[in-house]
């Protein structure tokens, strides 16, 4: 039986998506989504916080993100969590979570500016 690691994020891009082409010609778009939320501080009062989530969007979804999303764009991202683990050259264990997007809803769209030749 598979376990579930599904996540839904509603926030804004912190920078323009970065496009990469990896071995085999697959397209990958990387971007970070800032999500504002409220939590209680030690005095029990609401405190505004921001969390940052790194997102991977593959193939056509990634291409569309690069074309239509810009810094500040509002998005809703749905996908799975993936944990990458590695050891540093000093032998220290490190890990990082990323969201592998299955759906990206463009809540505010700004068409890519045309390049001036």
From TrEMBL:
GO terms for cellular component: nucleoid. This is Single-stranded DNA-binding protein. It comes from Leptospira terpstrae serovar Hualin str. LT 11-33 = ATCC 700639. The keyword DNA-binding applies. CDD domains: SSB_OBF. Homotetramer. Signal peptide: none annotated. It holds the Pfam family SSB.
């Amino acid at each position: 039986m598979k376990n579930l690691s599904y996540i839904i994020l509603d926030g804004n891009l912190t920078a323009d998506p970065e496009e990469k082409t990896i071995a085999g010609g697959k397209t990958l778009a990387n971007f970070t989504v800032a999500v504002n939320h409220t939590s209680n501080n030690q005095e029990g009062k609401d405190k505004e916080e921001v969390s940052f989530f790194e997102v991977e969007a593959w193939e056509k979804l990634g291409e569309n993100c690069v074309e239509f999303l810009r810094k500040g764009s509002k998005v809703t991202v749905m996908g799975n969590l993936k944990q990458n683990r590695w050891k540093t050259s000093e032998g220290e264990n490190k890990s990082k979570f990323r969201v592998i997007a299955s759906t990206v809803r463009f809540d505010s769209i700004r068409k890519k500016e045309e390049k001036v030749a």
